[in-house]
Amino acid sequence: MANLMTFLLSLPLFYFFLLTTFLPPATCFNNQTDQLSLLAIKSSLQDPQGALSSWNQTLPFCSWRGIQCRGNRVVALTLSFQGLVGNLSPHIGNLSRLTNITLDNNFFHGPIPPQITLLTKLRFLEFSNNSFTGELPKNLSQCHNLVQLALARNLISGTIPNELSFLPKLEAIIFSRNRFFGLIPPSIGNITTLQRLSLGACRLGGEIPESLGRLHRLEFLQLGGNGFTGLERNHFSGPIPNSISNASLIEWILLRSNSFTGPIPNLERLTLIQDFNLQSNLIENDMSFISSLTNSTKLESFEVGENMLSGSLPESLANLSVVVSIFDIHKNKIHGNIPLGIGNLVNLDVVDMSHNLLNGPIPVSMSKLSKLHTLFMGRNRLGGELPSLFGNMTRLSRFQLDGNEFSGNVSSSLGNCTNLLELDLSENNFSGLIPPEIMRLSSISIVLNLSHNAFEGSIPSEVGSLINLAALDLSSNRLIGKIPTSLSSCVSLERLYLEENFLQGEIRTGMSSLMGLLELDLSRNNLSGSIPSFLGSLKLQKLNLSFNKLQGEVPTRGVFAKKSSIFLDGNQGLCGGIEEMMFPPCKGVESSKEKLSILWKILIPILIIGGLCIVILIFFKCKESNGNPCPFVDTIGAQLFMRFSYADLVKATNGFSESNVLGFGRFGSVYKAIIDDDNDTIVAVKVLNLDVKGASKSFMAECRALGGIRHRNLVKLVSVCDSVDFKGNDFKALVYEFKANGSLDKWLHNNEEESGGDFKSLSIIQRLNIALDIAQGIEYLHFGSGSSIIHGDLKPNNILLDHDMVACVGDFGLAKIASNILPSSCESSVSSFGIKGTIGYVPPEYGTFGSISMLGDVYSFGVILLEMFTNKRPTNDLFGGEVNIHRYVNSALPHGIMEIIDPELNTRALKMEFIVRILKIGVSCSKENPRDRMPINLVVSELAGILAQCMN
Ligand SMILES: *[C@@H]1O[C@H](CO)[C@@H](O)[C@H](O)[C@H]1NC(C)=O
Ligand SMILES: *[C@@H]1O[C@H](CO)[C@@H](O)[C@H](O)[C@H]1NC(C)=O
Ligand SMILES: *[C@@H]1O[C@H](CO)[C@@H](O)[C@H](O)[C@H]1NC(C)=O
Ligand SMILES: *[C@@H]1O[C@H](CO)[C@@H](O)[C@H](O)[C@H]1NC(C)=O
Ligand SMILES: *[C@@H]1O[C@H](CO)[C@@H](O)[C@H](O)[C@H]1NC(C)=O
User: Which residues lie closer than 8 Å to 840 by C-beta, 6 or more apart?
Assistant: First the structure.
């Protein structure tokens, strides 16, 4: 029968109608059914724009808006951007001749009705940009004619079904920005018809299946924004398909590291594109195509590095989206000037133009790019003077200008870039003195390279500020004078290159403190005196002292023991050394022995004193930390993240940049940090402001409280950093799991500015779930972890929500461990160090008795619960004197609650009885007398009960 059907369906329309006419009535869908179905669909929708006003009996339904018929049956339903709100009626399944459903950019919510799988003729389904929830309907493979399945930007969850591989005609799977989880089924690789696969910004993980490599027709693949491990190693080749020009809904083009060849298709219609990445291909095109992106107002990242692009940058660069933050054209053949208008792109943070043929000056307008942190312009033909445009670029951390034609003095305004990690001005024609302002930038830690210029004068003594620097290259300049003794402060140096200058004097013994030095090149200077023997006790792997005026004995130890590692040619009067060096033996051997004994006389006391210092230091450290400061930091966490150094955290937070700040707390600021591992793991880093009294204590408190416990509703501490910063000051930070949805406070008090208007009000069920989460977290703290932990500072700011809106209790800076307390007594208290906590949430007895207790946490919880359902902070102007939030709610119970509850709550959705019960819990927890408060385990079971009943 199925075969017969297929056969008949392929016949001309005429036979097709005959068939439908003679089918038994039960399965007979006709135009009457279609009309009724459409009306049913309309009736389940709100239509504020009147888009469906033509859907009435006065017109035949085939003339209704958005309907296309063939033979009086609906074949296409097209209602994009119509402002429609509501569920998609299951009656859609009765429109049995539908081939196209296009409902994108509306406000559909609820699940995709499973009846959609009855639409066996369906070819194009476009539901993008709605709020559909739930999982994909089962048996989707029944829609065996499906060509395109587009569901981008919805809230669809569940896993991606294997079944999709049974759709023999599928060309496009557009699922990006949903809530899918799990793996990409390898069976997707069996859909050989597939041309577009977009799974970006879902929550998928695991390996990207190799089978995707079998998708030979694939033109567009987008997997970014997930948690995939493994690498994309695809081998796409040939030109970029022209069809991209029409894909006006594309948000990302990520074709990095393939073998696409040019030219670049017209991009004018891609107005929604956010990321454009063609990096590492073989594309030949000139740069005029930038003009075609000027209507793409959402463009954030433009990356076309490592191709064969040519031509010059068009002036229309200035009209690119103002939100562009990454502009990367490195390793191409682009020539001409940098357009002035680049200064319009004020949100740029990464600019990489290196390895091109660009010429002319750096436009002064670039001074407006105050967010830049990476500026790579090396290996071009840029020239002129280096303008003093760095005054505002305070975030700049990596700056490369090497291999250009710049001349004149280096602007001292670079000294404003106090976040610089790397500065490379090598191979230009810079002259004049080295600005001491640069040498004072103690943040520079990767490399400071001023080599192959014409710098004059002596090395500024400020060089001693570069205490974090790993590589310093001042070679091939015209530097005179002595090697400054302050260099001995640069204790992080691994590579030091001062060759080809006019340096004089002796090789300072001050360098002996550079214990990490691996390579040292002082060749082709005028250095005199002897070779200091301490060089033999460093870890040096390469030492070049050739073409100086060194004399005397060549040491034999360390680097001097290996002929291939040392270069001593062109010095007159050296002697000794290992035999292979073939220097003449030294004469006054006795005198050198004498020197040795003097050395020992100095060394032994130093060693003894040093040893003592270390013992004392260790002693104090131990005392301070009272044993192990953070004994339990997760071993898994330790594996994942290891211990962070200060430098790691500087890097991960963009130099603790303001744009990474997640919030400010009593003892410091919290930053979002992206760890440079395979997954770009996001964490939250709390940096303690050690100037604030008690901050150090709070670090310990939090370590102890959180280090040993794991609970779904407690923020997980993944690592700590107890170190010194680049200036040698103490530095303490705590590293937590990142919670994507921020604090409860933000959600309750819906700060439009902070959130960019992106917040939806929390539903009753969400609030109830969050309340239960918090209560469970507290219960675990109090009774679940062996020792009883008292949080001491519960408030909505300290409750964090993850991407699934699961609430976690965080910020344990005031926590206390009350060990050896009988859990049943509930009254356990610990003497506190004066009133802490936050006004409004601190229980009254903390002021009176000066002790903190579990029932104090319960009080704070009660206040939070009341706040969650009234949307009033306990510090609201309404309260004061005798009226607090507890009394305010209590006096409204039970009949006046409509007056006091959050007007955003959709109370129709829920019986008032539930709200009353919830508020009663809040009132009970926040009673003045601690003994009258409801115990937290009771709170948990009550809330769980209410939630269960609500869900029924
Ligand atoms: C249904 O189809 C029949 C014939 O195919 C036609 O006469 C009738 O007008 C149609 N009804 C509607 C509501 O379009
Ligand atoms: C039905 O739709 C037509 C076309 O939009 C419109 O002119 C007419 O007023 C509508 N009738 C009713 C009763 O809504
Ligand atoms: C269905 O959609 C496709 C793709 O958008 C289009 O090419 C086709 O013309 C549409 N068919 C109808 C009947 O609207
Ligand atoms: C792909 O199809 C082949 C042949 O039908 C089948 O053997 C294989 O199991 C399929 N692979 C997956 C991952 O489903
Ligand atoms: C941008 O949009 C305007 C107005 O729609 C149009 O006139 C112009 O041609 C477009 N430019 C490009 C490059 O697409």
Answer: 795, 863, 873, 874, 875, 885
pTM over 0.70: no
CA of 271 relative to ligand 3 center, distance in Å: 21
* Ligand 5 geometric centre to CA of 296 (Å): 10
Q: CA 313: distance to chain centroid?
A: 30
Regarding the beta carbon of 59 and ligand 2, being less than 6 Å apart is answered yes
- Rg of the chain over Cα atoms, rounded to whole angstroms, equals 35
**Contact residues for 98 (Cβ-Cβ < 8 A; gap 6+):** 74, 75, 76, 77, 92, 119, 121, 122
Give one word for 50, left, alpha or beta, with left for phi > 0 and alpha for psi -120 to 50.
left
Walk across the sheet containing 181-182 and list its strands: 181-182, 203-207, 227-229
Q: Which atom of ligand 3 is nearest to the CA of 70?
A: 13
Task: Tell me if 846 sits within 8 A of 852, measured CB to CB.
Answer: yes
Query: Could you tell me how many residues make up the chain?
Result: 952
CB crowding 859-869: b at 16 or more within 10 Å, else e: bbbbbbbbbbb
Could you give the C-alpha distances from 516 to 468, 488, 535, 898, in angstroms and in order? 12, 12, 11, 71
Q: Ligand 5 pocket, 296 CB below 6 A? A: no
Q: What is the residue with the minimal CA distance to atom 13 of ligand 4?
A: 187
pLDDT (tens digit per residue) in 127-171: 998 889 899 999 999 999 999 999 998 889 888 999 999 999 999
Strand partners, 495: 471, 519
Average pLDDT over residues 741-759: 69
Q: Quote the ligand 5 centre to 340 CA distance (angstroms).
A: 22
Pocket of ligand 5, candidates 245, 266, 267, 268: which has the most ligand atoms within 8 Å of its Cβ, to mutate? 268
Sorting pLDDT into bands at 50, 70 and 90, what band is 308? very high
- Ligand 1 atom with least separation from CA of 35: 13
pLDDT at 479: 96
Active site residues: 793
Residues having CB within 6 Å of any atom of ligand 4: 165, 186-187, 190
- Atom from ligand 5 closest to the CA of residue 294: 13
Q: 136: burial class by Cβ within 10 Å (0-12, 13-18, 19+)?
A: buried
Cα–Cα distance measured from residue 799 to residue 859, given in angstroms and rounded to the nearest whole number: 15
- Is the alpha carbon torsion for 495, 501, 503, 507 positive or negative? positive
Q: How far is CA 250 from CA 253, 268, 555, 898, in A?
A: 7, 12, 67, 46
Nearest-CA residue for atom 7 of ligand 2: 54
Q: Name which of 74, 7, 11 is nearest 39 in CA terms.
A: 74
Query: Picking from 265-279, 350-364, 476-490, 717-731, which range would have the lowest pLDDT averaged per residue?
Result: 717-731
The rounded Å distance from CA 129 to ligand 3 centre is 19
Are 459 and 485 a contacting pair, CB within 8 Å? no
Q: Is the pLDDT of residue 792 over 80?
A: yes
All residues at 6 or more sequence positions from 18 whose CB lies less than 8 Å from its CB, including other chains: none
